[in-house]
Amino acid sequence: MIIRKAKTFYLLAVCIFLLSSCDNKRYFEEYTEIPGQSWNRANILKYNVNISDTKMPFNIFLDIRNSGKYNYSNIYVFLKTQSPDNIVRIDTIQCVIADDNGRWLGKGIGDLWDNQILLRRNVVFPDTGNYIFEIEQAMREEVLEHISDVGIRIEKAIAN
After folding, report:
1. I need a labelling partner for 53 at 20 to 30 A (CA). Which of 66, 72, 79, 132 fits?
2. Residue 110 — φ and ψ, nearest 5°?
3. Which tens digits make up the pLDDT trace of 81-136?
4. Which domains occur in the chain, in start order?
5. Is 129 left (phi over 0), alpha (psi -120 to 50) or beta?
6. What's the CA angle centered on 44, arms 80 and 120, to 5 degrees?
């Protein structure tokens, strides 16, 4: 009985180690749950990212999780980036999350769909320090229904 528990524990530990080591590119990733799956335009999501390497190229992604009840095939967002020396860049981004036939893109489980949209490739941050990323929904509706989570991912742009 004790040997069996030890084997089970060992197997579980190995699985956790393997799963956690699969994502060696991730530098930063954080999701924000949207209360009631209703993203109000006033709910601007903010992420603080400490950049310590000015030579490493990074890829920046927007993560969007929507329900199958979402009414559109895309979503527009404003992405505001503030550098440690207070230089601000604002981008308007269209994220396509369904094809022309209405099939959801990304990965789905149940009624939720995860999309990871590449925003910028091979970005080299000019300064070390705290970068602030703010994401605001930019659709025509004040409240955007059926968006459950939004986040940002920054990963090292390294070859596998």
Report:
1. 79
2. 65, -125
3. 999 999 999 999 999 999 998 899 999 888 899 999 999 999 999 999 999 999 99
4. 27-156 (2.60.120)
5. left
6. 35
